[in-house]
Amino acid sequence: MLNVPYETDSYTLRSAGPIPVSTGNFIVQTFGVNKSVIKTYEATTSLLRSDDMAGQGGDYISASYSRLPYLTEGGQEVFSGSEVVKPVFINNHELEI
């Protein structure tokens, strides 16, 4: 469907380095996760602009598109691709999966 994304959540564990507790055994202390929303488009005519990116004050950290070999009935180019929204920090006890 044109301009309708599939949205998925991505969780990245935030942790300190491994700490040895005995020979060959380590523990990893976690202190939260970063949650990002990934928007995937099968077909879209709308691409993000530079000012939509986090470095320019926007809400996205990355985007990638490929031009598809056809046009809309109105003559617009069509792309497939994905966009990643800036992550949000979540404490371990707040995480709901």
pLDDT < 50 runs, ≥5 residues? none
From the alpha-carbon coordinates, what is the Rg to the nearest angstrom? 19 Å
Distance between the termini: 27 Å
Look at the structure and give the mean pLDDT: 91
Number of domains: 1
Protein architecture, described:
- With 97 residues, the chain is an all-beta fold.
- It has one domain (6-19, 29-92).
- The protein is built from no helices and seven strands.
- It has strands at 6-15, 19-22, 25-27, 30-44, 60-71, 77-85, 88-90.
- Strand 2 and strand 3 form a beta hairpin.
- The two termini are 27 Å apart.
- The mean pLDDT is 91.
Give a quick precis of the structure.
This protein is mostly beta strands and 97 residues long. 0% of the residues lie in helices and 58% in strands. It has strands at 6-15, 19-22, 25-27, 30-44, 60-71, 77-85, 88-90.
SSE map:
Layout: E1 6-15, E2 19-22, E3 25-27, E4 30-44, E5 60-71, E6 77-85, E7 88-90
Antiparallel strand pairs: 1-4, 2-3, 4-6, 4-7, 5-6
